[in-house]
Amino acid sequence: MSTALAHGGGAAGPAGPVAPPDPVQVPTKRSPTALLLLLPGLVWLLVFFVAPIIQLLTVSLQSQFPGYPGFYYRDLNFGNYWEAISTYWPHFLRSLLFAGLATFFAFCLAYPLAYVMAFKAGRWRGLMMILVIAPFFTSFILRTVAWRQILADEGWVAQTLNALNLLPGGHITETWAAVVAGLTYNFLPFMVLPIYASLERADPRVLEAGRDLYANGFTTFRTVTLPMSMPGVLAGTLLTFIPAAGDYVNAELLGSDRSTKMVGNVIESQFFRVPGGYPIAAALSFTMMALILALVYLYVRKFGTEELV
Amino acid sequence: MGGFREAQGDLKIESVTKSFADFTAVDDLSLVVPRGSFFALLGPSGCGKTTTLRMVAGLEQPTLGRILIGDTDLTGSRPYERPVNTVFQSYALFPHLTIRDNVAFGPKRRKVADSDKLANEALELVQMGHLGSRKPVQLSGGQQQRVALARALVNRPEVLLLDEPLGALDLKLRRQMQVELKRIQTEVGLTFIHVTHDQEEAMTMADTVAVMNHGRIEQMGAPEELYDLPRTAFVANFVGQSNMGPGEVTGTDGDALVVDVAGTTVKIPKSRSAVTEGALQFGIRPEKVKISRTRPEGIGNDVKATVLDVSFLGVATQYLVQVPSGAVWTVYEQNLDVEPIDLHPGNEVWLMWKPGHAFAVPAEEEAGA
After folding, report:
1. I need a surface site. Which of A133, A267, A306, B285 has the fewest CB within 10 A?
2. Does residue A136 have a pLDDT over 90?
3. CB spacing of B92 vs A18 below 8 angstroms
4. Where are the domains of chain A?
5. Bridge partner list, B290
6. Which top CATH class is B241-362?
């Protein structure tokens, strides 16, 4: 450090390579205390995550005793997966599409909101934050039921739209739009909070530096503000997309029986209502998990910004 | 660049006032900074110096008055329309961009060809060429400071603003950067306006220093002038140290005022006093005072005092002495010879100084320290 910077009197020779400041020394020896502290968490994961997932995997490969619905034997029946995918591929597509749309709309709503909260709200910031979080104090299901009533055919929203001839089908509920709207609403805070956190942490001087260096308001947003908030955007989109893709409550309460079912609904009915549906439900769950993992991997690889502060 | 305004010449601040909701940060300030000079705005925090800088950058707009470069009126224009760049106190580097892209940001926005080449040259100028592909978080404070400087310099602005740029660095690094900033300014020949609360920093680098207090300029001039002949009590205490005491003009003796300071008669050249009659504040710098055990002859001003404390500082020895008015003065004696200090607390001594070293400023209520 000091040698590289010591060149008084205008010496213009290139300074030697300068090492970045040493990060805090991390003890490399494994201490028994650290392991002991990790133990409860590891046990928890083992009992409530690893064991059930292995159990689910074995169930997804089981075969039925012919003629005895509801009785299975251990097997490596990959036919379950084939059946799940070939029968329910439209539901997979719908899940990904609805979750994708909900993520997109949530982003469009959340970014301006987070921006205003971080930079413009002043003393209203706390109140806005409470308003964003307040819905969490009510049950997820209750809120979705409430939306069903708000959007119902007899409700003023549908009636007004109908009166204005703006509702081609005559209904809001029982449509894909209602499901996507419900998903968007329910996962909005998960989009707002990470984006807000990343914007709020930004030094306002950095945004001023953008304007000082010949970027107008829009260019500063595009080249400085948005890229700086990318970690928040990434976290927000993942926190919205992943649970939305696996959701079945919104499709159940706001959608129709025919055209808006998502994978979650199929899994639910296969597990709880269809006799002998366990292996298919398990195979559906595993396929969905693999699909989401693959999509998230591609997404993070494309937009990941691991070196950001 | 739609609204970009080319402008060349001196920076002129004409009767600028900036009021916020409940206070006036800058109060009817007028100032001309000659093109190519290194100018320092010096003052305590809250004196309006940073607000003045931000108005020149366009990050704040004046409530009243105008800001011009040469004959171009920049009042009301946006920061990105001005040929002015800022080095921020917190450096404000773009965390998502590499060092080279940070520096190339300005040229790219102005669609300058070869912006990467310009960025590399600017990085060489601040001796950071080898770190172009790093990210800001990977650099130390001093290195980030150099990058912030390069990012502003690369645009060759008509005026470069430095907002306490060395504030976050440790003392040794700050000293090195002071010398280097001066070198770079001489090399590129741009107008630098440097805001600081550190009088030593301002004096080391600037051609001209403006001392600000309460949104106004108290005194402006070359560092030597400010130090040698402060015109207000605030400047006398903020720029270096002063021994001061209230006095009353009792008469004149040729070119000198005869002043009574707490019972002691002293002489001050008329040219060194901002007041010619009535009450004033008498002042003398600590190193201009000689200390001796016996009453000196014929030097001019002297006063008897009692030693309170002696501290050895290396290049000098600092004495705290009590003068008859009860005030405690500081006296520096250079350590020219290796001889033991033979003065101790409680000793009676005589203080003396040449009348030409004394000065007087108006006896204000807000006399500071």
Report:
1. A306
2. no
3. no
4. 43-303
5. B352
6. mainly beta
In A, which residues are within 8 Å of B179 by CB distance? 8-9
Neighbouring C-beta atoms of residue A34, cutoff 10 Å: 11
Mutate to test the interface with A, among B127, B131, B159 (most CBs of A within 10 A): B127
Topology of domain B11-228 in CATH is Rossmann fold (3.40.50)
Nearest by CB to B95, from A1, A6, A308: name it: A308
Mean pLDDT of A3-10: 37
Q: B13: pLDDT confidence band, cut at 50, 70 and 90?
A: very high
Interface contact A205-B92, CB threshold 8 A: yes
Residue pair B235/B211 in contact by the 8 Å Cβ criterion: yes
On chain A, the residues whose CB falls within 8 A of the CB of B129 are 14
Q: Where are the domains of chain B?
A: 11-228, 241-362
Chain-chain contact of B94 with A209 (C-beta, under 8 angstroms): yes
Q: Do B176 and A8 touch (CB under 8 A)?
A: yes
pTM score, two decimals?
Answer: 0.80
Tell me whether 0.85 is exceeded by the ipTM. no
Provide CATH code, domain A43-303.
1.10.3720.10
Whether residue B80 and residue A227 make contact (CB cut-off 8 A), yes or no, is no
How large a percentage of chain A has pLDDT more than 90? Answer: 63
Res A30: pLDDT:
67
Can you give the C-alpha Rg of chain A in angstroms? 26
Question: Looking at beta carbons, which residues of chain A come within 8 Å of B88?
Answer: 205, 208-209
Give B-chain residues touching A219 at CB under 8 angstroms: 109
Residues 109-168 of B with CB under 8 A from A: 109-110, 124, 127, 129-131, 134-140, 142-143, 151, 155
* In the predicted structure, residue B74 carries a pLDDT above the cut 90: yes
Please state the three-class secondary structure of chain B as a single string: CCCCCCCCCCEEEEEEEEECCCCEEEEEEEEEECCCCEEEEECCCCCCHHHHHHHHHCCCCCCEEEEEECCEECCCCCHHHCCEEEECCCCCCCCCCCHHHHHHHHHHHCCCCCHHHHHHHHHHHCCCHHHCCCCHHHCCHHHHHHHHHHHHHCCCCCEEEEECCCCCCCHHHHHHHHHHHHHHHHHHCCEEEEEECCHHHHHHHCCEEEEEECCEEEEEECHHHHHHCCCCHHHHHHCCCCEEEEEEEEEEECCEEEEEECCEEEEEEHHHECCCCCEEEEEECHHHCEEECCCCCCCCEEEEEEEEEEEECCCEEEEEEECCCCCEEEEEEECCCCCCCCCCCCCEEEEEECHHHCEEEECCCCCCC
